Each structure stands twice: as structure tokens, then as C-alpha cells.
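Let us practice reading a record.
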Amino acid sequence: MDKDEIKQLENLCKQNRCEIIKMIHSAQSGHPGGGLSAADILTVLYEKSMKNFPEWDKSPSHNERDRFVLSKGHASATLYAVLAQRGYFSKDELLSFRRLGSRLQGHPNTHIPGVEVPTGSLGQGLSMACGIAMALKLDKNPANVFVLLGDGELQEGSCWEALMHAPHRKLNNLTAIIDRNHLQIDGTVERIKDINPLDAKLKAFNWNVIEIDGHDVVAIYEACENAKKSDKPTAIIANTVKGKGVSFMENQCGWHGKAPSDADCQLALEELA
């Protein structure tokens, strides 16, 4: 990527962070901390790394689209912001987030253009992504599957069943990205149930492992490109900051599921400007 592309991506990341804050503030409900930590990852995926078609129901090539699964479904505001940015639906719909009757509920569902599977119960997304990747292999479809997990989510036993399954089935079309922000609703991942040494565990399960700064758009893009060339499923450990971009939310587990007040919203948008 050249300097102009990098700058454009970084600006889109800021815009998507602003939308996340506005959506959660408007609803007075949502998960800003993990949404902000994942903003760079999802922005790069949809803008640069994945083959995706905003009018995919009308596109003759829609079956070749890369698939994305948001396993950490509580970060739905991030996915909605990115999908709207890409043109899957109007940005005007974003402020209906978590409203009664809105398509944009607290966890994504398949009523929303671009959402492949409904998610929200943690520990399920990687298994679903494995199933999608297997189906693509059986169909000889060259599309790739990306799934985003939280690091606290890896305390779920079902994740490790899926982590064992993917290499056994040689699902090199699958990339699992771990939003490694070290915090969950009750505190640090290390205190609640430590998943370290994460890289060694993933390698022992026969995954191709790449560790990056999850806020560096070039590093995210290069990791995804390298994953596509691997003969194994790839796990990208994306080291991130919960609440990234908003000083008073950064590294604060209290902002896991707390909506900003009017004053908080104004200050956050000023910092992101």
C-alpha cells in the first residue's frame, strides 16, 4: 500500500470509530470497548483484504465473496459501521441501532445485508466458520473465511474444539483473528482465566500463527495476505487496546458494555476528529 492508501484507511478507521460512539450513545446501550479495539481490523478486512460485494444479492460473482463471521457478536456496532461505510445499507440506518423493530440489533443477524450467520453466544463463531470453510472446500470454491474472536472468548471450550478441527480438516481457507485486548467484562483475561501462552498453544494445535499490532493497518493487511498463502489455517493474534482512540475508555474494562453520556460522547468525538 502507498502512503495515500494508508492515510485513507486510517481516516476510515476514525470515521468508523465515530459511528460506533454515536450509535451506542444514541441507543444508550452497547459495547464500546471491544468495538473500538476491533475497528481497524474490520475496516482493513472489508476495505482491502476481503472480496466483498455490497450488492452481493445482485452480483453474478456473489458466490465468490469472502465470508466473515463476527464471533464476538457484542461488537456489532463495529460491523454495522463498516458495512454501512461499504454501502451494504444506508448510514442513515445506523442510529436505529438497538431500537425496537430495527434490523441493527445488539448482535448481528441475517436480516442485515452482508451478515452471513447470526452470532452472539460466545464460543460459537469459530465452529460456524469451520463449517463454512469446509463447505467451500467441498464446492471447490476459492473464497476465504475470516472470523473475529475476542481473547476472553477463548476461555470457552468450544473454541478449542474448533481450533483442533480446522487443521485436521486442512482448512487453509480459514483465518481466525483474535482481538487481543486483554480485558473482558469482569477484568483482565489473565486474572479470570489465563489463556497464555497463546501463540505456543495455537502452534501446538498446528495453526499458522502471525502476531501483529492490531491497530497498524499495514500490518493487518499484510497478515491477511500472508494467511491466504498458508497451507494451514491461520490465527492472527492482533494485539489491541480496549477502547482504542478514546483516552478515557482505553484499557478500562468498565467501558466493556457502558454507553457514553452526552458529555462523554462529545469528548470522544472531539478526540477522534
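A brief commentary: The first strand starts at residue 67 and ends at 70.
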